[in-house]
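Exercise 7. Given the components listed, write out the predicted structure of the assembled complex. Treat all entries as one system.
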Amino acid sequence: MNLPTSGPVLYAEDDENDVFFLQRAFQKANLSGLQVVYDGQQAVDYLSASGRDHGKCPVPSLVILDINMPFLSGLEVLAWMRKQPAVADLPVLVFTSSSQEKDIEVAYSLNAAAYVTKPSAANKLVEFAQVIRAFQASQSGVAFDFSGVAGYRPPPLRAR
Amino acid sequence: MESELTRTLRLKPSTLKVLIIDDSPDDRAEMRRMLLTGSKTRYRFVEAELGADGLRLFRDGQDARPDVVLLDYHLPDMNAEDVLAQLRNGAELPPCPVVVLTGSEADAGAELLRAGAQDYLGKTWTTAESLTRAVENSIERFALLSERTRTAEQLRASEARFRQIANTMPQIAWAARPDGYIDYYNERWYEFTGFSRHEFGESSWEPILHPDEVQRCVDTYFGCIRSGAPYRIEYRFKDRASGGYRWFLGQALPVRDERGEITRWFGTCTDIDDQKRAEEKLEAIVTERTAKLQETIAELESYSYSISHDMRSPLRAIQSFAQILEEECRDEVGTRGREYIRRIVTGADRMDRLIQDILTYSRVARADIALENVDLAALLNGILEGYPQFQSPKAEITVAFPLPRVRGNVAALTQCLSNLVGNAVKFVPPGVVPHVKISAVTRDKRVRVSIQDNGIGINPEMHGKIFGIFNRLSRDYEGTGIGLAVVRRAAERMGGTILVESELGKGSTFHLELNGESWD
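Answer.
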């Protein structure tokens, strides 16, 4: 399957502040195409539609999922995605304030491209946005190496 | 102890009291004459004409009793067998030896011996020698016989006593031969099993054993029988009353003779079913409660963990917006505004550190800690090189290499050492360069790592408090009051302890005691 590398970055996040910070970071990094949804259900709705209506809901080049969200958690969205042929292979970045081993383990077991904890201050997000730009430029999809991002958490030993 | 026999022989009276029961005065005189001439033994004679007269002497008490009786077979009132029967009065032996003098060969000697006589002689061919020999042999044989009878009686009495004790016990009791063959059970056994009194044997308990336990019991029992080791085992017996099984504790000990050979086994079966069931119930309760408790603890932990997380989210907003404010609106807010922003950032930073420390603490407290052998020197080097504040000229830290390896967990050890060294360089008076000495000694498989500093020291009254969470001793130094609590929990999780030696103004030494490396 040929994945779009020019599609938007879909960001599922219920915290408006976090949305604002990432939007700001995208601006600062001269990056456009951040598509925001505000809970897990909206993420599922968008991704379902993107399979049918490319005009209204373009297939994302990257999905960034917060974990703690209303209706469906980010990990639930990820698990759902992996069962949908249309979006099963999309690169997914789990972006959360949780550093629980259990969450990290589950995320990587669902083939997340990276698990990144949110930085304590917004300035670091600019670098994060720059890495995303590099990711889009590289066209390497899931294989992209995100380990340089601040807050990157590697897969637990047994899952590696 | 002196036996009855040796006493009888040794104390053989120099004068033997002989009772002659014979209705013929001539015969009595003849017997006296023969005995007096027949040996050196001195005799004293008591005479009776009738059997009844002779028997009366035995009723008159110990002193009147003769040492030996010469009994004529045919007496006017009874014959010798009647006299013997009355003398024995149901006992194995008469009270003293009896020699019967028969008038003719028709008087059956064998009958007399069965009746309790020691010997018999035909009157017509009796000589002084033969009578004396018969009397003296009889006395000796009688002494031997009465000794044997006494021993047998004692044995019977002690067996009866044992049985009586065994039957008053609430337990089942049994006795076995050295080969394990059980030849005795007390009443409890028959009550419990309903077996007949003739069912004995090495496997007589097999029919009522729980089928799952037969092999184990047989193996254990005969193992002990062979080795002589005390026997102790728990098993289930079928309970006739309920149809179910009850738990028993079987125990037995060997009885050994003076050579150490096992002569007998004595054992008991104690009904421990009630205890056992109470134990099982208790165990089930404990298991259930423990599971509930673990559930609660896990819930609490995940609760506090997510609270800490949720707290970081608004904090991130505060920090980030303060930063953005500073960046984008620095001209509008002015100098005073920038100072306030700086304070917001400082406060938020402190809050962030606090939350992170709490998360660290809760992680140390609950994470799985796998123990391995850790190279202390490499670990410590890594920590010292990782932070600029641990390096010259900011701090002078000396390590007394080589350091031993310890049984620990890398993450927990890193927490311990970085906190302890961090404290050592932090708590110094202003302007003083921290000097820290790190050393380790091994004693009894324990390793004591000591971290000594030239810092401000700790009032001994506070030593008990410093390892508790949120306890800070000074407002002059940055800190959340969690570091030493983390150290203690981490040390405890590794089977270690943390101790402090310190006085105000004299520096502090912290001792981290850990298990030395091991391979089991």
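Discussion: Chain B touches chain A at residues 305, 309, 312-313, 315-317, 319-321, 323-324, 352, 359, 367 (CB under 8 Å). The radius of gyration of chain B is 49 Å.
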